Amino acid sequence: MPRRAEEFDLDRIKRAVLDILEAVGEDPRREGLVDTPRRVAEAYQELFSGLGRDPADELSVFFETDHDEVVLVKDIPFYSMCEHHLLPFHGRAHVAYLPRNGRITGLSKLARAVEVASRRPQLQERLTVQIADAIEERLNPRGVVVVIEAEHLCMTMRGIQKPGSYAVTSAVRGLFRENVASRQEVFALIRSDLRP
Ligand SMILES: Nc1nc2c(ncn2[C@@H]2O[C@H](COP(=O)(O)OP(=O)(O)OP(=O)(O)O)[C@@H](O)[C@H]2O)c(=O)[nH]1
Ligand SMILES: [Zn+2]
């Protein structure tokens, strides 16, 4: 969901993009570029739409069940922007938690929390921790595991240029941190290729 227009200075971004185009030696008046500053501003509005929002607020729907086992949503695709280069990093998030007293949230809400935390200038490590924090804060579960695997375009299309390399980060909380067997079980589920 885009942020409210008044919080996002589209005109300022348009001016900045025009400056960049001129600074790299382009002609911003040529036909293909005339609307580019507006397009980029609107794209940034979407790419940074998680700014000023709390991923925990996405976890607003709760159900009480007698489900006491791990809940895992795997392969949640996400696109974020590396805060160092403002280039995309993208990949998949795997989010697992162990409910306490049967308190669970909607499955889609986990993906929504990933979305809000990723749509901002971000670090992969911080993204991982923010998702885990949100789940801890709102569900008070017995354990949380968040694993993120991502390709960073700042490492693949520029700089060190290592296409195919990707970074894996994890945040492990509660029982999954204390109990090796439980942790191994959830990591095995994340690795498994069980498909619907
Ligand atoms: N830990 C971490 N590092 C990141 C992430 N995204 C980008 N980076 C790194 O941030 C670092 C910034 O390093 P600098 O030396 O300041 O910038 P740079 O000269 O453009 O670095 P190079 O990419 O090595 O050319 C680089 O090593 C990037 O790979 C991330 O999500 N987490
Ligand atoms: Zn970067």
Quick one: CATH superfamily of the largest domain?
A: GTP cyclohydrolase I, C-terminal domain/NADPH-dependent 7-cyano-7-deazaguanine reductase, N-terminal domain
Name of the level-1 CATH class of the largest domain: Alpha Beta
Mean pLDDT: 95
Report strand %: 25-35%
Q: What does the largest sheet look like?
A: 5 strands, mixed
User: Ranges with pLDDT <50 over ≥5 residues?
Assistant: none
* Spatial arrangement of strands, main beta sheet: 5-2-3-6-7
- Alpha-beta content class: alpha+beta
Number of helical segments?
Answer: 7
Task: State the shape.
Answer: elongated
Give the C-alpha Rg.
20 Å
Number of domains: 2
Named CATH architecture of the largest domain: 2-Layer Sandwich
Would you count the extended β strands for me? 7
Cofactors and ligands: guanosine-5'-triphosphate, zinc ion
Between the first and last Cα atoms, what is the distance in angstroms?
Answer: 29 Å
Q: What is the string of SSEs from the N terminus onward?
A: HHEEEEHEHEHEHH
Pathway: Cofactor biosynthesis; 7,8-dihydroneopterin triphosphate biosynthesis; 7,8-dihydroneopterin triphosphate from GTP: step 1/1
Protein name: GTP cyclohydrolase 1
GO molecular function: GTP binding; GTP cyclohydrolase I activity; zinc ion binding
Family: Belongs to the GTP cyclohydrolase I family.
